Amino acid sequence: VLAPHDGEIVFAGRFRSYGQLLIIAHGGGYHTLVAGLSRVDVTVGQMLLSGEPVGRMAGENGKNQNPTLYIEMRRNGAPFDPIPWLAALEHEVSG
Asked: Whole-angstrom Cα distance, residue 53 to residue 44?
């Protein structure tokens, strides 16, 4: 599993029924929550660049053949639909 955007790990560990949970702060009130990991490869306070590995999903070791990755994006503490944001990124030109 890769970081969706640059940010800082503000939580990494077990949380309720989510199992291993990561919370990545991106600045400007934006956070990404990632759950469904069998292994976390980052620590609280670690800075990330987009695309850096953050952990492994359950099932990569053959134990769970139907792993589920949960991703939630939040702005100022409230979940929001990231589809318009992701669509805008798709149309950006780099280089």
From this structure: 14
